[in-house]
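hey can u run this one w/ zinc ion bound, need the structure tokens asap thx
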Amino acid sequence: MRQIIKNAMFINGTKYNIIIEGDKILEITDRNPVVENIISVPDGVYVSPGWIDLHTHSFPKYEPYCSHPDDIGYKTGVTTVVDAGSSGANDIDEFHNMAKKSITRVLSFINISSVGLKVRNELADLSLISLRAIEKAFAKYPNMIVGLKARMSASVIGMNGTTPLKLGKQISRKLNKPLMVHIGSAPPKLIDILPYLERGDIITHCFNEKENNHIFSDQLNVNQKLFEAIERGVYLDIGHGTSSFSYHIAKKAKTENISFHSISTDIYEKNQFNGPVYDMATTLSKFLGLGYSLEKVIHSVTTCPAEIINKKAIGRLEAGALADLTFFTIDKEDTILEDSVGRELNIEKRIKPYAVMIGGKFYECR
Ligand SMILES: [Zn+2]
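ok here u go:
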């Protein structure tokens, strides 16, 4: 079926007609051909590539990391959710079954621990890190699994220090897949984690303010190591979460020209319903409030995460790409939004999802 989205407003304000054929974008044009299905959206609605949330917890099996992919996905403007390690190799079949039943595209950074988030200290037992099990999972689901996840904070690793990270990196190198590393409370210290990370790896929770273990603690050394990592091609991901995003750190990073790559939510049931995350649009609005341009904000939730997970068919709004789109408004609204440590930010513009298209199918947001 051929469809046309008429007068779609791109984020630079220019309007085009988007012609969709099947699940792909056929053409972006001023022409007005006659096609079977016409989609029109109200004036003032923007269109961007479909939003990609690089860090979510969308595996309904394990509380509280059990948001349903569609509840945090298409209903909120997100066309692709990437689960960040809720499932390990033991559950990957069940995860895949759940993923294929969702309207939202569901991908996975598989936990390097076979048990995933069945427990909270999944890296305290090194025997749960199995190259064979992970290799098998990648072989079985090469399109769904996009990388590996290791949570490197004190409550997760037990007495193991940086050993889980070393083992994770060995597997990541062997399989040539990126490793997403969660940073949090020490040990291990951030300064001991950074040297292990290579081109294509991802630091999530990059602007957290955990006691004495954030990007500005131990100023000179961490900063130096961080710049070296960024220089090598390591990505910084926001991973807002219940306790991992601080306006104070974000503002300081902006002043010191430390830029993030992707904006993600680290959403799961608790922070979805009680805040401070709520949804992707709220998270994006915070970055507008911090003074980032709409272009930077949208790039960080579309093109950039698509590049990080090496999915070339999504994250771009051009002929040949998959017809994954997000439609949204920017409403004038004076409000206050909190970060993860109770700091407040005045927000004047609020991004609100209106609808999405996933693989050529149109869905209104809730
Ligand atoms: Zn997480």
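The radius of gyration is 20 Å. anyway lmk if its weird
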